[in-house]
Amino acid sequence: MEKEEYYYKCVQGEIEGKQAHDTLLMSKSKRRCVWVPGPVIVGAGPSGLAVAACLKQRGIPSLLLERSNCIASLWQLKTYDRLRLHLPKQFCELPLMPFPAHFPTYPTKHQFIHYLETYAQRFDIRPRFNETVQEAQFDSTLGFWRVMTHTTEYVCRWLIVATGENAEAVVPEIEGAAEFGGPIKHTSLYKSGEELRGKRVLVVGCGNSGMEVCLDLCNHNATPSLVIRDTVHVLPREMLGKSTFGVSMWLLKWLPLRIVDGLLLLLSWLLLGDTARFGLVRPRLGPLQLKNLSGKTPVLDVGTLAKIKTGHIKVCPAIKRLKRHTVEFVDGKTENFDAIILATGYKSNVPSWLKEGEMFSKEDGYPRREFPNGWKGESGVYAVGFTKRGLLGASMDAKRIAEDIERCWKAEAKHSTTAFAPSLFSLSIS
Ligand SMILES: Cc1cc2nc3c(=O)[nH]c(=O)nc-3n(C[C@H](O)[C@H](O)[C@H](O)COP(=O)(O)OP(=O)(O)OC[C@H]3O[C@@H](n4cnc5c(N)ncnc54)[C@H](O)[C@@H]3O)c2cc1C
């Protein structure tokens, strides 16, 4: 099929669909075919919302596809009750809309979700929910991206990947897991220590989530132990009355990274003591250097370390195998537990659906190019929220992407009928 004919049929399909209550032209794969005049954004988390808002502000409509039934599904469906933003609010706001002044420095997850819902309303962002993108591929003959969901093929000029660094839970295989007999669940399913009151719980993984889940369990009179297999930097969340993150950003304006790392470690030692004494051995590289090189985030302590020091949380080595309600550790010791929580992190799902070999690594699903250059690929594909720099990184990406697409949008509107004509049918997108 010729490019123009295919494009025409897609547009025609959309018009006919509107007139005939969704009895649309079907593409070859029996999916209905819909032309999208602006970018298609995959994922309605904070990153997807941020880029949709920045585009909207520049007069560019976009279509947001979300596999779940709500915006920010990670925050709404997969986080524990006591979660607050780890970083102060000024480092977590999305472009064009600050947090309300009355919000605390570290907003609760409910406040953050409320902020995101208000954000979506303010920019009239209306994602299409329950639309999992199963495949997206650039059709070099047509010069368009073809984005497939279960029912629909969307055809567009620009594709923005916003499925996040936390799209799928990482669940390690543990020998004997089937024998254990008690619940073994990932933190994405953990809500509160209430459900484990009085129980002996082993938490695997000592990132921010693992440390905080241990604290939550203590506060609900459970008895947590924490598996620490690797070295880890634990820093106080605040230093000298300021957030550690803010202090680091400020120091980095004046001093080289290695000196800032040295100062952070000195202050942490003064405030927290020698963490290695309690089983939390620090990596050889400083916290900021390690973050830059590997993306590994330091733990910002919110009270867990004090519980480790007092023995309310026991530190354990890696698991060797499980038996019935028993864990055997690599040092040969065994201990009984009622439940296991896996704070073993998340991974990107991009390689499972994006058929593209250049921009994203097939191994880890992140852009191959290092920050700050990973946001743009070839043929109109973009990535938002893959910087390993949280919401601040996502906001930077979103602004750059909107600026870049605006340039092409304006240029194409001048020179091409295809960029201009579909705007007649932009009713379907926000
Ligand atoms: C417990 C926890 C606490 C955190 N705290 C902070 C913090 O304080 N500050 C900070 O800056 N960062 C924090 N982060 C990092 C976090 O990744 C970001 O805050 C933020 O959620 C990233 O937004 P995102 O939109 O890139 O990804 P997500 O929030 O993961 O959103 C991606 C969306 O894409 C959807 N999706 C995935 N695959 C598909 C598909 N194939 N088709 C359609 N839709 C799809 C998902 O359902 C999801 O809604 C935290 C992360 C976690 C897990």
UniProtKB/TrEMBL annotation:
<dbReference type="GO" id="GO:0050660">
    <property type="term" value="F:flavin adenine dinucleotide binding"/>
</dbReference>
<keyword id="KW-0560">Oxidoreductase</keyword>
<keyword id="KW-0285">Flavoprotein</keyword>
<keyword id="KW-0670">Pyruvate</keyword>
<keyword id="KW-0521">NADP</keyword>
<dbReference type="InterPro" id="IPR050982">
    <property type="entry name" value="Auxin_biosynth/cation_transpt"/>
</dbReference>
<comment type="similarity">
    <text>Belongs to the FMO family.</text>
</comment>
<comment type="pathway">
    <text>Plant hormone metabolism; auxin biosynthesis.</text>
</comment>
<dbReference type="Pfam" id="PF13738">
    <property type="entry name" value="Pyr_redox_3"/>
</dbReference>
<dbReference type="GO" id="GO:0103075">
    <property type="term" value="F:indole-3-pyruvate monooxygenase activity"/>
</dbReference>
<keyword id="KW-0274">FAD</keyword>
<keyword id="KW-0503">Monooxygenase</keyword>
<dbReference type="InterPro" id="IPR036188">
    <property type="entry name" value="FAD/NAD-bd_sf"/>
</dbReference>
<protein>
    <recommendedName>
        <fullName>indole-3-pyruvate monooxygenase</fullName>
        <ecNumber>1.14.13.168</ecNumber>
    </recommendedName>
</protein>
<dbReference type="GO" id="GO:0009851">
    <property type="term" value="P:auxin biosynthetic process"/>
</dbReference>
<keyword id="KW-0073">Auxin biosynthesis</keyword>
